[in-house]
Fold:
Amino acid sequence: MRIQLTNTGYIAKLGSSAGALLFIVLLIQFLVRRSHTSDSPQKKALQVLQILIVSVTIIVVAVPEGLPLAVTLALAFATKRMTKDKNLVRHLNSCETMGNATVICSDKTGTLTQNVMTVIGGSIGTSAVSFSDQAMSVRLEELAKEILENEDSVASSPVDLRLGNSPDAEIEDQTSQQLRIPISDLSSNLSSEIRNLLRLSVAVNSTAFEGEENGKPTFIGSRTETALLEWARKYLNLSDLNVERANHGLVQLFPFDSKLKCMGAVIETTDRSWRMFIKGAPEIVLAHCTQVLESGLSTNNVILEEKHIAEIKREISTYASLSLRTISLAYRDFNQWPPHGVKRQPDDPSQAEFDDVYNNLTWIGVLGIQDPVRKGVPKAVADCKRAGVNVKMVTGDNIDTARAIAKECGILQMGGRVMEGQDFRRLNDFMRQDVVRDLSVLARSSPEDKRILVKTLRSLGNIVAVTGDGTNDAPALKAADVGFSMGIAGTEVAKEASDIILMDDNFSSIVKALSWGRTVNDAVKKFLQFQITVNITAVVLTFVSGVASSDETTVLNAVQLLWLNLIMDTMAALALATDPPSPTVLDRKPEPRDQSLISLTMWKMIIGQSIFQLIVTFVLYFAGHKFLHYGRDIQNPHYERDIQNTLIFNTFVWMQIFNALNCRRIDDRLNTLEGIWRNWLFLTIFAIMIVGQIIIVFVSGAAFQVVPLNGPQWAISIVSGSLSLPIGMAIRFIPDSWLMACYKRIVPKSWYQKPQRTQTPTEVQMLWSSRLDEIRDDLALFRRVRGGRLAHLKYDLKHPKQFLERSRSSRSGSRSPMRSAIAMSGSIAGSIGVSSDMSPMERRNSGVSGISSFDIGRVRSETV
Structure:
């Protein structure tokens, strides 16, 4: 809006020019007519001073000094009301920017879903034993019936892991022999060894802890970990978490890694051996497993074969297709810790590097965690689509889970694309721009993937809003036009980097912010439509009447013009800038960044109302005395002129009062009174303008140079003013296309067609600097963060050579949440090129040197 408001500066220039021209014309008339008069010098000086006062007043009226007030009031009113809608606005400009957002990149957990997680099912070992609650069992039966109904078509098609179909007879035999037990009977149907293994893998490998909320004992931590602990407490006889952890001393903890999508913990068992538990994304953990539990009745292991992998993947896909978040459990035993021959961490030799021990795992099983979609989310997504805003889901979950949730929310529809973060990250810039247009879901994504997505969308001219709750989401929040952080689950760094804080972490609140943003834009447009109409009519009427007058007096004097200025600036800003969002505000598409603040529809109304008001006032001024018969007053020789000027002034004000009602709409819809009873401030200002005008005419005659009017004259004023409403309705029936066609026929093409600008060779050569600009923006954010991580970052930036050497000696890298920033100094050189979002080491290890923009088949994305 700042750019659009800058483009309206011509209004003040035109008004100033009109005031200066009026002064020059009236001064010339005065000099010509008064050159041979016998008036005293004092009287002539007063007449010149009066001409100057009227000219300056015209400039004051024409300059839209109330526009900043209208913008400020609209933003202040909107931000205050948005707080009630669970939107805490940190930056005022983000409110109006959100109104023209074209893309919303939303997290899944806690934003689209309720973030109320419960383990409702799972399978152990080779999926020979599985458990589920009653609701999940019903859904599985419905899914099985659906598979049977499509059996004929499936038989001739490739393996579809999403539906759990496979032509392998051996797998079908295993499925038919699979033991499914109710989750309530899980403890009694499992052996003590398996039960203890599951309980330990959940209790030890977790950062959650026991505490109290609202006076009730509960687990505190991430929702996923607390859901697992609640499941262990209910069905695996977990009594006291602290006692369980104290009985098994923690040797080393591997924090969750957003890239590897897993975390681990090492404990020392009672027989002087060490066991490492792993918890994370099933398809990633499964790739590092070589053994699997034979069944859910014993801890015997068997070699993980292809048939086991296919069966486990089928089970994972089945859970994911039911919109369940899938978490896998695995372990590995060691004879000593750290194991012999593995790399040690440089700062602590007693700690092993994770990459060297993250292999040869034994698969325990997979759990399905339910996180229901929020009730209002499907409707909110539908409202966004109706408003022309594209919603994209960015999540770290399994691609099948993300697909199912996106379909349930209405995000993924026909033609939408689903892609994993690692595939998206490997694309070059040209290919990435082609993909993001249809991308609906980005699964298994990292915070860096989200930042890349935001940057790519903005490079295509989109106005992007993004949500984030973690520290690593801060670069994406800063890169977006509007960043939303989570008020409940968000970190302080994420809140600091955001523009708006969602106090309820609900996606529906984002749609409310979208409505308020458009309402702010509309409020400024309503004010401009009203003010420019008054500007045109007041300036033209004053100019013409001053030139036509024999004594250089205008029909509207300086005090009357100041009253009009008060009406159209302060009062109009208060009245028109405080409308609440209309139900129809989401029925139109977003406006481009470079679109003019005053649309063709607004110009149509401004010019139409101005012509109507000028016709009425000119008729009253030039011909009113011929058919209205004002009468005479013996004591006042100028009585007829005073009556005429008062009638014109009164009629003019009433036309502005009724035009304020007409300006409540800036489109071609006819209902200008929509939602007026909800805006008590508009009704109050409307009443103040009416009462003020009545008092001025009846009481303030000396100050405003007016005389009292009789009943018929009041009727003429009010009826003439009320005609603004039917005139506005008639103007709205004129198609904009007709006016645009006439405009293009009359106005030269060079006036409205913007010349196409081509980049110079110097600009093309300097495009690479955008990479450094992105890094500079990220560093500007993290410079606010205090502590050891920042000192570590500063050291790495000052000593890039030592940092690169340390990176080559350690494949795992830092597990810190500031990893993306710490590694930034070593990524500068590698951030420019075909695979620009991979460091040189990552590019060498992965064997990726670039992806052709024509090699679409290599992208593992799916289109619905």
Q: What stands out?
A: The first strand starts at residue 87 and ends at 89.
